[in-house]
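**Sequence, structure tokens**
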Amino acid sequence: MDTIIGKILLIGTFFYAISANAQSRPKTYQLQSPDKKIKIDVAITDKITWAVSQENEPLLRPSLIALHLNNKVQPGVNPVLIKQQIKSYNDLIVATVAIKNREIINHFNELKLDFKGGYSIYFRAYNDGVAYRFETHLKDLNIEVLGETADFNFNGNNRVFWPQEENKEFLSHFESLYKDSVITAFKPTQHAALPMLLFATNGTKLLVSEADLYDYPNLFLFGTNGNSLKAGFPKVIEESLPVRDRGIKITKLANYIATTSGRRKYPWRTIAICRDDKELLVNNLTYKLSTPSVLTDTEWIKPGKVAWDWWNDNNIYGVNFKAGINTETYKYYIDFASAYGLPYIMLDEGWTRTTTDLLNPSKNIDIQGLINYGKSKGVGVWLWTLWEPLDKDMDKIMALYAKWGAKGIKVDFMARAEQYMVNFYERTAATAAKYKLMVDLHGAYKPVGLNRKYPNVLTYEGVRGAENNKWSTEITPTHNLTLPFIRMAAGPMDYTPGAMINATKKNFSIVYSAPMSMGTRAHQVAMYVMYESPLQMLADNPSNYLKDSLCTSFISRIPTVWDQTIALEGKVGEYAVIARKNGNKWYISGMTDWNARSFKTPLPFLDLKKYKMEVLSDGVNASRHAADYKLSSSTVTATSTVDIRMEKGGGWCAILTPVE
């Protein structure tokens, strides 16, 4: 369970009984961040708007907010304010599973506005972001939410990294490519997933997303051909037809987006605010706004690395048996994992008798024998499932997997974001926790805080990751340097790094069964520090890893959770340098796009000890042969400056161990 240590200061409470629209001018209320640099202005007339500024520079112009219910109460429409209250909070969150930081300062001011009819709106101002949410406390036990107004009126034609979506029914794997453009370029018919990054006119970075999403659909944003964006939501699916074993064709939608309790809090609408690009690498706004852990026993939750089969197509070699989805192949994976101290292997799609029969293994898989073999070698087993057959018999399936001794489940192909699917995520997390199973959500929307409430949810896909190298040329170093600033700011991402066949831009080719990556070997290794995922894959096949034991050994020493994270350098889509601490060791990672770069990086975050610094960096010929790397070591202290040099599409990774 999360530990929360802190204090609450009541700043002021005021009571009203006046309809704001009865007054000659809007009634305004202000809230400042603790450092007084960020300000929220709320205006109430016959509607409610909020605006955001930073040091008197407008970031968000007055923007309309409202809920639309099948109820005489319409939150945000003709509001009558009864009471306002401002509180200051200063907490210390101690994370159960540490993603960016083990300890997170949760310092914010909160304005609560209570309105006639039984609803409230909360506004929060942090030093690194703002948020608001509705709360209803209606007499009706159940209500229909017909829609929600959540406008974002920006101060100009802001630059935007637009997470492109195409399906008008919001059926998607949410694996965004980010179109670098301006917001006026997008029409009312074009929508985007979240998080979305915009650059304010003063250069400040604004990352729009949501948090604490339960029993409600995901938020999407639509263009307007202007400086504004408008909210859109998937409607409740009433009828559909199956498409093969993992898709649907919607045949009937409801006229509402949710049916829910009349007494509840709604998701936070969030904007992370960062002066510099690199601040996005350490922003924790989504986590801070999310429900604390509800699990009291978490000792069984063990993050770590996974030897994964699917990306490499079980294409192992140098063995005396036929490779494939069979017991012998997975014993080979277990032997490899054990040799390098990897705590898990994954049995991906194909291990069950059929993709919809999740209770019986394939005739070529001795699942109990494999799990027992793994246990004897200190290696746990994760099992893949399709979401819908899991949904139909969840308790029975998870009880069986727990009885076998499995450690976790990878749930796949949800590819939806409406209310039912959001509820499925939480039901999966809660049932898995009941049976002490960890969870990896694939074919998933972005993190919205479920992993804080249920820390057994270790990671999410919702990212256009390495798997796409099997069929496209989209996973470029530029894309890889966009993800940490946008998608990763929402929460952990299962990108699945670790490609051992690496290629320059000129030499890259698509090979489904023996895939490669763009960029250098060091670029891939650096991902293990740069990319946050408490469950981190080794995506290539064990035969390739065994062939290069030096590189594999280096990767195996990198942890998957972090006590502290410091952003050193960063520019969206171009480069990033980051330092992370786990225990008494530090890890430094650098990645670059198709431009070679170098940084002189001081190490003032180190303590007074000497450190042995072991580096895996681009080899002298990496610009010609991308797999070329070199290993080196030196002694450094807090007064040292490190020369980080990266070739085109390159990387740099260091492990710093205190010298006793």
